[in-house]
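#onboarding

Welcome to the new folks! Below is a worked example of what a typical request in this channel looks like: someone posts a single protein sequence, and someone else replies with the predicted structure as tokens. Don't worry about understanding the tokens yet, we'll cover that in week two.

Example request:
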Amino acid sequence: MGDEFINEEKGIEDLRDIKDILDRADIEYWLDHGSLLGAVRDKRFIPWDNDIDLSTMSTEIDKIIAEIPEIEKRGFKIIVTDFNIEMRRSSVPINIIVMRLKGDAVWTLFSGDGGDSIEGRGIKKQFRTFIRKTYKLLFSNKKIMLVRKFFKMLPAPIQDISYKMVWTVRKRWGKKYTPIVVPKSYYDDLGKISFYGMVFNTPAPVEDYLSLKYGKDWKKPRKEWVFWRDDGAIKEGFDIPEA
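Example response:
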């Protein structure tokens, strides 16, 4: 998430460049979250939003990673993790939320309110830093293409054990994560929307989707809305796959 509100002119310029890269690479993605809400309700970015939201399926990650040189060539800094791809050229980032399929549901994890996943337990700051850096080494290093190629050369059982070990420790001692779970049907036949002269895919039916996430009164602006607390797609207790 960004620290400043969206500058409309810069936001449009950044979004147009990222869209051009994704489209040229034939990557499937859609407008989502606050950016989708703004596009449908206000025909613009929500003035108090602090990032631009897209989403994609995890099956598209390798194609996005292959475009990192082009993304960086256009002046963006990029951070890749299992659940988010952040691209930043101005003060406001473009986030591509990475969704995964489980049965009839599509899910992801949002980092919560910044609290630790185990409350009341004194975890040393140095240990949290170690876990964070280890996670980034495997999943979000700037040299991620090389890391992933090396990782894929390992025997499948070693890959599986390494992934599960780091991910389990990350969940236990890292930030608290909130599961976002949406019926797969919203993504079976994506809709279209024009936004600042660009055409984006959307979940469909889009108004039903916005009602799920923001409530039946989604057309009424709510400046106090907080994603990790108020999203209607939050599903506490969701059985998160380990890999």
